[in-house]
Design brief:
This protein folds into two domains: 200 residues, 2-Layer Sandwich (Cytochrome Bc1 Complex, Chain A, domain 1); 180 residues, Metalloenzyme, LuxS/M16 peptidase-like (Cytochrome Bc1 Complex, Chain A, domain 1), CATH 3.30.830. 42% of the residues lie in helices and 18% in strands. It is built from 14 helices and eleven strands. The strands form two sheets. Strands 1-2-6-3-5-4 form a six-stranded mixed beta sheet, sandwiched between helices. Helix 10 packs across helix 14.
């Protein structure tokens, strides 16, 4: 058999979006793609968990928008979307809430009818809210019996501060304080024309675009969320004992900067080399050489007003201290020794491959566009990122690693039975 030829990676064209503003100034970004016969619209609100004053209110609002509106019950909404095969999704992170509807082109109108109800006229029915809160309360209780959930919460508190919007955790009993009135107030203060943008993508024409504009113009006037996130106040070390576990969950992090910082891309390359793919340094060390773990990773995490570098691994409990020492050793090695050209070439290909995977499918460009807009960037940012990755040198990476990967700046958290 003849092996197929190896060809250079050809990057997809990064589409540039169109934009128009409603009468109240809400931007609608448009990306045309007529190849699949589908349409997706995402409504993006600055209404993440860092904007809430009452625990769990932000996530409960976005997750119960479809539980009932002025005209439709939650059952009617679910049945109406299911009947035409449309997809609905609501998700939230620390900074943003996103509500998405997707349908075949021929079923866009009934889908947008439901979208209008969900986005503009939710009623947060008391019975549905009580059911949702009881379910989430129980789910959170179960999740907190597992090391991975406790590890994430402990790490956030240790890295940012236990009362910091990016680090705070709350008792599941706080769900008892959520009422329809509380949720309606959060909705009124955050789901408004000034606090929103939308992305329309796929196979659509002027009529569909005007329909989405009409929905956006139905949003009330309001103020842009101006929540100011305070600086992180990290502690060097935090641990929690957990009985009957055979592994320790380790996280080592450093508060750094958001994606707008000039060194963010270089630190992304550093993080990828450290633990962003299967052959990374952490995997080679902790898994292949020492057998401490099945997997380890490292990443640069981008938040709206902050960012951080993190290394993470779940290791055999008897080798907890050894694993921490090796993680620090790999960090120090990156800061002291320029990596070889062969390794750097592999890291660059990994990053390019990740970008190509994001753009796979008709809506990948929309996801990239949302993230770019959230960070105050246009879609040419992706092109500039890839150009920076391609041009970076081993010495540049060593210099950036030496600048930021300092042991004295690290926060270490460990959960396990040791």
């Amino acid at each position: 058999m003849k092996r197929p030829p190896i060809v250079p990676i050809t990057l997809p064209a990064i589409p540039h979006y169109g934009v128009r503003h409603t009468s109240l100034g809400t931007p609608l970004y448009t990306l045309h793609n007529s190849t699949q016969g589908v349409v997706r619209v995402s409504f993006v609100f600055k209404a993440g968990t860092s904007t809430q004053s009452l625990p769990f209110s932000a996530s409960t609002v976005v997750n119960t928008l479809s539980e009932g509106t002025a005209k439709l019950s939650g059952h009617q909404i679910a049945e109406g979307l299911d009947y035409v095969g449309s997809y609905y999704d609501a998700n939230i992170d620390r900074d943003w809430a996103v509500v998405t509807f997707c349908s075949l082109k021929k079923f866009v109108e009934p889908t947008l009818d439901i979208a209008e109800e969900v986005v503009l006229r939710p009623t947060f029915p008391a019975e549905e809210i009580a059911s949702y809160c009881a379910k989430r309360k129980e789910q959170l209780h179960v999740q907190r019996s597992k090391p991975d959930q406790l590890s994430r919460e402990l790490f956030g508190k240790a890295l940012f501060g236990e009362n910091h919007p990016y680090g705070v955790t709350s008792s599941e009993e706080e769900y008892d304080n959520l009422t329809p009135e509380v949720l309606a107030e959060f909705y009124r203060s955050h789901y408004n024309a000034s606090n929103c943008f939308a992305i329309l993508c796929g196979d659509f024409g002027e009529e569909i675009e005007e329909r989405v504009v009409a929905i956006l113009e139905g949003l009330p006037e309001g103020d842009r969320d101006a929540t100011l996130i305070p600086p992180a106040s990290p502690v060097p070390f935090a641990s929690m004992k957990m009985e009957n576990t055979v592994q320790s969950s380790i996280k080592i992090g450093i508060p750094l900067f958001p994606r707008t910082h000039p060194d963010f891309v270089a630190m992304q390359v550093v993080a990828t080399a450290m633990g962003g793919y299967f052959g990374s340094r952490l995997m080679q060390n902790l898994r292949e050489e020492h057998g401490y773990t099945y997997g380890a990773y490292a990443a640069m995490i981008n938040l709206d007003q902050a960012g951080y570098f993190v290394m993470s691994a779940d290791v055999a409990a008897d080798h907890t201290e050894d694993a921490v020492e090796e993680m620090f050793r790999e960090m120090e090695r990156l800061a002291a020794e320029p990596m070889c050209e062969e390794e750097l070439a592999l890291v660059k290909k990994t990053i390019v491959g990740d970008v190509m995977r994001i753009f796979d499918g008709p809506f990948g460009a929309a996801d990239v566009t949302i993230e770019n807009i959230q960070n105050g960037e246009q879609n040419d940012y992706t092109e500039r990122l890839l150009q920076k990755v391609e041009s970076i040198t081993p010495e540049e990476l060593r210099s950036v690693a030496a600048k930021y990967l300092q042991k004295k700046s690290c926060t270490v958290t460990i959960i396990g039975n040791r």
